[in-house]
Design a protein that fits this description.
With about 375 residues, the chain is of the alpha/beta class. Helix content is about 50%, strand content about 15%. It is globular, with a radius of gyration of 20 Å.
């Protein structure tokens, strides 16, 4: 494992070392893995190069969008570091390479990106699961004392279900901040529901859940302003009181949806389906939580927004279904759609007018 990590992050360390000055843009998505990755790289560049990068939020949580290219042009960024973004349109990437040196730190299914610094452990082991936050933590650890960002690394890695292969991080957290792990003897998924670190993960994720991309930007801003998570819990950092308010709203709505799920879920073959009807983006958090209650079933949690339907796929611990492939297969024959992710967690998005086609694709699998 250590060899794989070292080989993976080696090019990233070289890329960061060569940034002596110049304008840097960090491009990120909206979930905890993405904003924590961005926060760690930002802090690292500020610490070792005295550079304060510009932060650019992609309008999509999974891809580099046209607005990113336009923003990079406006900033005249010489270096672009994208974190936890799986997709870059070929034309966009070509144009981006023409104006900046580009590095992508990611952990999704590898793509054939060329002429960029592409940091992805699955280039070496297609089945390995190491969240982008963990990779950024290991990069930071090679170049500076990582104690100050342990809690941020823990939030992003725990949120992205990265406990299994990242236990060295959580052992470090337990050693330096035992209160974040608590009295839990084992470092496993129980941390998400029964630890202070899990509570912090929910607090930061609530920003995205309640307020979308603007919430994610606000949560990242809080991560950059404080080196002490207690200041966040006490509402002492600018923006942290708003985070705590969003957390209260999301927890209340989450509990309502859990009750609604128990009444309205539908089972079709091996799939358990549920439509989230909420003004908040709850599907991903709900799917992750409910997957722990499943066995061999596959959860299909979907939420309609405007003209599109977004779907989160999760599987129970006994299931061996490849959810990345499921997401891809579920949108076959549906224009203006996309899907993918990881073997154990994936997502798709399609125009709602194709919902019957989506259901037909599921039933044929």
């Amino acid at each position: 494992m250590n060899v794989l990590v070292d080989v993976t992050i080696g090019p990233a360390i070289e890329f960061i070392r060569k940034i002596k000055n110049g304008k840097v843009a960090i491009v990120h998505g909206h979930d905890n893995d993405s904003i924590c990755s961005a926060a760690i790289i930002y802090r690292l560049l500020k610490k070792i190069h005295k550079i304060e990068p510009k932060l650019v939020a992609s309008e999509f949580n999974y891809a580099i969008s046209k607005n990113v290219l336009n923003e990079v042009k406006k900033l005249k960024a010489e270096y672009v570091i994208a974190v936890d973004l799986a997709e870059i349109n070929v034309d966009l990437l070509t144009e981006l390479r023409n104006i900046s040196q580009v590095m992508l730190i990611d952990h999704h299914t590898p793509r054939g990106y060329v002429k960029i610094t592409y940091v992805n452990p699955r280039n070496y082991d297609k089945s390995i699961y190491l969240p982008a936050t963990y990779l950024c933590y290991k990069i930071y650890e090679k170049l500076a004392d990582a104690k100050e960002i342990l809690w941020i690394a823990g939030i992003g890695t725990l949120s992205d279900m990265g406990l299994k292969n990242c236990k060295d991080l959580f052992e470090d957290i337990k050693y330096h901040h035992k209160e974040l792990i608590g009295n839990n003897e084992n470092i496993d998924e129980i941390l998400f529901d029964k630890s202070l670190l899990g509570k912090l993960a929910k607090i930061f994720d609530s920003a995205r859940v309640v307020n979308g991309i603007d919430g994610a930007i606000a949560a990242l801003d809080v991560l950059l302003k404080t080196g002490n998570y207690q200041n966040v819990l006490n509402g002492e950092v600018s923006g942290s009181k708003k985070l705590l308010d969003w957390y209260g709203l999301s927890e209340k709505e989450f509990n309502r949806l859990l009750k609604d799920f128990s009444v309205k879920k539908k089972t079709i073959k091996k799939f358990v389906l549920y439509e989230v009807k909420s003004k908040y983006n709850m599907k991903s958090a709900l799917a992750t939580y409910l997957s722990k209650k499943m066995s061999s079933e596959v959860l299909v949690i979907y939420q309609k927004s405007g003209e599109y339907t977004d779907v989160s796929f999760r599987r129970g611990p006994v299931s061996i279904m490849d959810l990345n492939q499921l997401a891809i297969n579920s949108i076959i024959g549906m224009p203006d759609s996309n899907g993918g992710g990881h073997i154990q967690a994936a997502a798709c998005r399609f125009p709602t007018r194709y919902f019957k086609k989506f259901m037909g694709n599921l039933k044929s699998i």
